[in-house]
Amino acid sequence: MIAHYVPVVSNSLPKSTITTASKRLLRSYEAEVSGDERVNVPGLSKLDDLVQKILKSKPSTEKAVVKAWLQSPVHPKELLRALRLGKGTMKLDANPNLLQWFRIVAAYRAKNGDQAFSDLDIYYLLLKTNSAQDLTTLFRSLKDSPGLEKIAASMQKSLSGAWVSKALQEETYPVTVYNTLRLQEAGTKLDETPIFRQWQKY
Question: Of 12, 89, 124, 150, which cross-links 185 as Cys (Cβ 3.0–4.6 Å)?
Fold first, then answer.
């Protein structure tokens, strides 16, 4: 079991409050039946620094922030949690930090390959705290953001489910297809998921 404690960050808070909150060190631990282990402080400091850079970034400094992040060991999933973007609005024009996060994801995939943080990884991560309809609208809006056209097209293609029957046409067991599509990760939102509807047709 892995638990994470992250700094509370909100766009609605004054800068002084954000600065104070972001200085709180993160604490992560792995617990089996017994035992408690802390991650090293340098790793936490790097994440804290990245959060601060994103919060303070302006259009003119966005590229520098992305470059700095690519040199760190922090995964986009952890950065999303630290920025608490999963629980915020999914409208890009109302949440500039979300747009910056997607730019970081695009850079991460360009460096490590799309499967290093796949479309399904992104989708199911965001689905935990958002509706399927909100995410569909979000991914459509990405195509209008410079530099995010590729990831927008990829996400839309994946969510359309149009590739399912072709990619898995040789698979004869529906349960195997179900697991391949990781539909169990949709939880109670399974019926809302476009990919699930394609699986039903399969």
Answer: 124
Distance CA 13, CA 160 (A): 37
3-class state of residue 113 by DSSP: coil
Cα gap 112→120, rounded to integer Å: 16
The closest of 20, 27, 30, 80 to 50, measured between CA atoms, is 80
Tell me, yes or no, whether 72 and 117 share the same domain. Answer: yes
Tokens 């922030």 — which residue?
Answer: 65
Residue 134 corresponds to which tokens in the numbers above? 């909100």
Residue 110 covered by a domain:
yes
> Which residues of the chain, if any, have pLDDT below 70?
1-47, 50-51, 53-60, 86-90, 93, 161-172, 202
The pLDDT of residue 11 is: 41
The three-class DSSP label of residue 27 is: strand
Task: Please state, in angstroms and rounded to a whole number, the distance separating the CA atoms of residues 195 and 40.
Answer: 39
Whether 86 and 179 map to the same domain: the answer is no
**Domain limits for position 185:** 161-202
* pLDDT per position as a tens digit, 38-93: 333 344 466 677 667 666 666 657 788 788 888 888 899 988 888 777 665 667 76
Structurally, the chain folds into a number of domains equal to 2
Whole-model pTM: value is: 0.65
